[in-house]
Amino acid sequence: MKKIIITLCILVLSTYVIEAQEKEKKKATFATQILHNSVAGFYPIFFGNFETNKSYDITIYSIFWTNPSFGNLDSGSDLLLETGVGLGFKMFNKKLYLNPSMGISHGKFSSNSEGTKIAEGLVPNLFVAYNDGLFDFEGYIAYYKSLREDDDIVTKDYLLNWAAPGIQVSDRIVLGAFYESFGITRQEDASGSVKIYQWLGGSVKMKFDKGISFRISAGATLTTDVGTSDEFYKVAAFIPL
């Protein structure tokens, strides 16, 4: 009888400990974003978020660039792969989200290397999001700094940034503007910078249940030094998994 009581007590205590651990367990979430634009083409991004008991979360990301010109153009191999880790800060009653990250690029995007270079470049970047029920804003900036110096390799550095300010006209719709620019800031074999494109246009963002959103942007090319099209489009679907 005593053994039965002890066994029941252990089971009850174990259940309590497991429940307590589950309550204390921090969330770990995963999401994907599918994008396509008129220059870079199609590229999916995966995001991971690990809650902590601090004032920040730990974030990870990976971008699978699929444009053949970001690798070996003829074969479509050695494509740019970008992986990184960062911190996510929720501020002002979760209205503002800041996510600085440090990424590493792999492939041959930042050089004229014949094939893949692991840790070819460093990619410090920052994502910003703000929503107070009326004003909705998303912005991003990333600098692609070449790391693999070699006498036989010519390297380049790039700067990418975009911003999407808007007004939330309903619970589901955000109307606003879209700006994006991408260019070469340094080339070993040439002087001066090169503006690949600079875009400005309009944007519509649609919000769905379970955190899903879809944005479509389009407009005019303000500046280009490489002859990109006079017009642009970009679509992005964010899907928590």
Keywords:
241 residues; mainly beta; Porin; twelve-stranded antiparallel barrel; 1 helix; 12 strands
Write structural notes for this entry.
By secondary structure, this protein is mainly beta. The protein has one domain: Porin (Beta Barrel). It has one helix and twelve strands. The protein has one helix at 2-24, and strands at 28-37, 41-50, 57-64, 81-91, 96-107, 117-131, 135-146, 156-168, 173-187, 194-207, 213-223, 231-240. Strands 1-2-3-4-5-6-7-8-9-10-11-12 form a twelve-stranded antiparallel beta barrel. A hairpin with a 6-residue loop joins β2 (41-50) and β3 (57-64). The longest helix is centred in the first third of the chain and has 23 residues, at 2-24. The radius of gyration is 23 Å and the shape is globular. It starts with a helix and ends with a strand.
